[in-house]
Structure prediction request, 150 residues.
Amino acid sequence: MDRRKQIKYYEDMQQKELEHQEDVRGVKDDISEPINNRHLNYLKSVLLSQLLLEANDELQGSKGFKQNVKHQINKTSKMLEKEYQQGFNIIYNNNPEMCTNVLNKIDSLIHKIKIATIDELVMIDALVDNYFENKDELIKTQTAEFNKID
Prediction:
């Protein structure tokens, strides 16, 4: 088998495996089906699970990472990896730069909420409410910047 045929064969096998995994996980989409809330919720769950896995990794070695907490975090991490790793890989491999930027933006937002004072949290909540009430107008004037990933 020449090299081109080998490459084509492996690409076909990879596609078949992806389709099988989508079937197994219940996320296979009909090509004519537009993106809906189920797709977006799955994407959100996959991305947040990845952030949780990364945050759990950062806890190792800290004082709060006691034996019972360590056991539970490891158990949760293994469960999340089992359930979401394939989905994350599909999403990431589809557009690594966009996926990395979205993860970084979510992580940044969570960090800002984590370090905010009670007064600031009340203000942040009001700002978020204002965004949802005036989304169309704000989108016209505000931008989100994504970084080029090398």
Summary: The chain has two domains: 1-31, 34-141.
